[in-house]
Each structure stands twice: as C-alpha cells, then as structure tokens.
Amino acid sequence: MTSRLVATALAGLAFLFAGCDNNSTTPTAPTGALQVTAARTVLRAGETLPLTVTGPAGAPVTGGAWTTSDASVLTVGATGVATATRAGRVTVTVTSGTASGSLALRVVPDYQGTWTGGLARPQITCSPASTAAFCAPGAPTTGTVTLRVTQVGDQLTGTLVDSAEPSATVPLTGSVLADDQLSLAGRLDTPATSPTTRIEVATLRATLDVVLGTLTGSYQWLVDRAPVGGTLQADSRAQAQFRDLRK
Predict the structure, then answer these.
(1) Which residues pair with 54 in a beta bridge?
(2) N or C: which end of the chain has fewer CB within 10 A?
(3) Which domains does the chain have, with CATH numbers?
(4) CB proximity list for 101: less than 8 A, separation 6 or greater
(5) Using CA of residue 27, residue 92, residue 157, residue 232, what is the dihedral sign?
(6) Using one digit for the tens of pLDDT, what is the confidence trace for 139-168?
(7) Mean pLDDT in each 10-residue stretch from start to end of the chain (247 residues)?
(8) How many CA atoms lie within 13 A of 61 on its CB side?
C-alpha cells in the first residue's frame, strides 16, 4: 500500500512540473510568414528608417536576423533600422526561427540642400514691351540661380531664385523620377489674388553627380505681366541651363 501511495505522489508531482513547463513565459520562435513594413518604402541616400516586423497573428516580432540583397545600397541593423547609402533598389529579409519576411525598398539620390551657381540662357524670347533684365539690348545671357530643396524619400519641395528676377522666390514641388533625376515645377503669382506678374518655372530637370557633389540640369523661365488696367500677357521666355551647382 505504501509503495502505491509513493508512486501516486510521484506521478502527481511529475504532472505538476509538466504543467509548469507548458505555462512558461519563455517566447517561442514564430512559424510561417512574417510581415515587414515601414513608414515609407523610398529612402533618401544617407537617411535612416526603422522597419517593423509582425508575425502571422499580427504580434510584434523582435530579435530577428536581417539580410539585404545589396549591402552597398542599404543595410539593416540588429534592431531593424535601415540605413540608406546610395541610389538603388534592394530587398531586405528578416528571419526569426523558421519564419521569414521581406520588403522591397528604393534608395534615391540626396538632393536636399541649397544649390547655387551660374546659368546660361541659350534661348530667349521677349515681347517688345518686356522689362526683363535679359531682354535689354546687349544684356548678358548668363546669370545665377539658387535652388533650395527639401526631400522626404522621393518627394520634393523647394524654391528657386533666378537673377533675372532676384526679388522673386518661386515655390516648387516635384519628385525624384524613376531614372533618379530631380523633377520640379512651380509658379509665383504677385499679388496672389489678382496677379499683375506671373513667374513660372517649368520642366526643371537635374542630375546629381555623386562623386563631384554637383547638380546639372535645365528649366524654362516664363514671365507674364499685366499692363496697368490690363490682363496678363507673355512678357519673356527663356531656357536656362546650369552646370555644377554646389551646396
């Protein structure tokens, strides 16, 4: 009888300890597919961006191992923070246990900053009554430009000041195109409600030389003016080309 009681007690203890193991708080590695997300999938070269990983049930996953298809374009640290290095496209993959997930990312050139330098106007068209500085007889067809760019991923905003109208700051918006060129355009109405002057920057395109750190491109400079009591009329048109703008 005594040996039976001892055996029963030992069996109960074994069951109790087994139950404790099943209720352990030690996390187990997820299985199945992981989902990798980010606030954006386009980064500016030099930018960092945290990546988030969730399991099949939507629970956060931490501590996975990260790999990237091209470490010269972008790397990911142990905590899931992506660091963009140069323009290109890359796929990042995280693995935790037997589960994994991937996310495609794009890195675009870093256009952010204030760019200044000289420009040329190979094509100029002026109305007879134009007051544009470059329309005056014998006026030089060269000038200067200041381009300010703010960049979030591939989305751009900025301003442009052309020495043809040095007191006019034209607001710009645009993006980085699929070929990594900067693309901007904008218009300034003065005054804003019933303009007597309209300055438009159209088709601004530029390419960054990463090695030299210079910007080369062109834009159209279009000016309309209204005579006293009249409506806006074409005043001057110019094609502006710039090389080696620098920050």
Answers:
(1) 35, 60
(2) N
(3) 30-108 (2.60.40.1080), 113-245 (2.40.128)
(4) 33, 34, 35, 36, 53, 93, 94
(5) negative
(6) 999 999 999 999 999 999 999 999 999 999
(7) 44 41 41 87 96 88 92 96 97 93 97 98 95 92 97 98 96 98 98 94 97 97 91 96 97
(8) 28
* Tokens standing for residue 172: 């710009």
- What whole-number distance in Å separates Cα of residue 78 and Cα of residue 43? 19
What does the block give as tokens for 75? 């790397």
Give 69's DSSP letter.
S
Strand partners, 197: 190, 225
Alpha helices (H) in 31-180, listed in sequence order? none
Let me know: does 111 contact 207? Beta carbons within 8 Å: no
6 CB-side CA count, 13 A: 3
> Strands 99-108, 42-44: parallel, antiparallel or unpaired by DSSP?
parallel
How far is the C-alpha of 234 from the C-alpha of 30, rounded, in Å?
A: 66
Q: Is 117 helix (H, G, I), strand (E, B) or coil?
A: strand
DSSP secondary structure letters along 188-228: EEESSSS-SEEEEEEEEEEEEETTTTEEEEEEEEEEEE--T
